[in-house]
Specification:
The protein has one domain: P-loop containing nucleotide triphosphate hydrolases (Rossmann fold, 3-Layer(aba) Sandwich), CATH 3.40.50. Helix content is 34%, strand content 27%. The protein has eight helices and ten strands. The protein is globular, with a radius of gyration of 17 Å.
Length: 232
Amino acid sequence: MDSVLRLEHIGKKYGSKVALRDVSFEIEPGRIVGLLGTNGSGKSTLMKIAAGLVQPTEGEASVCGTPVGTNSKGLVSFMPDRPLTEPWMRVRDAVAFYRDFYADFDSAKANDMLQFLKLDLGERISTLSKGMNERLQLTLALSRAARLYLLDEPIGGVDPVARGKILDAILEFYDENSSLIVSTHLVKDIERIFDEVIFIRDGQIVMREEVEGLRMTAGKSVDEMFKEVYAE
């Protein structure tokens, strides 16, 4: 089975600051993977490299065998930690913008997600709560027919009720022929959706485990292991 994402010895420097060092892993199709780490651990840089938005200083990255760059962008749907929409837009404007910009945007799926997440097409984005805005951004990202979905802190700053709805939507509308990576430091609320987790600290991968294997062999939840790894 071919990997959806392959990173080989990825390193990234910003001037003298090392953001990532010798990161290598592969993600198979049909996996929901948690990329876990504290703020400043390298999560967002790694996600942006996979999305083709940032070039690595060293190493190689590919999506479905295509080197990351211009040709891979059509295979990847990236939900950044800051909205791509404009405050003047209504929800319908945001959907139309994505439909016009991305040839693989599925309007029917977007409408189904908007109903599931209780979003009205006529609402102004400027009046949406943080949680409702996150629901909109998730709808836009998951409504593309991509092979790799990258969600950067999708529940950051969102209340527990909204978090639950967002996670339910991911499970409901995620395409199992693709792969999905979610970066977060809010582990306890989100670990229920993960098949496996990758722990990153100071720009390096320090652990990768199947969630069920972690629970069975270590007898710990992902949240407990997260606290253990980052307390050292």
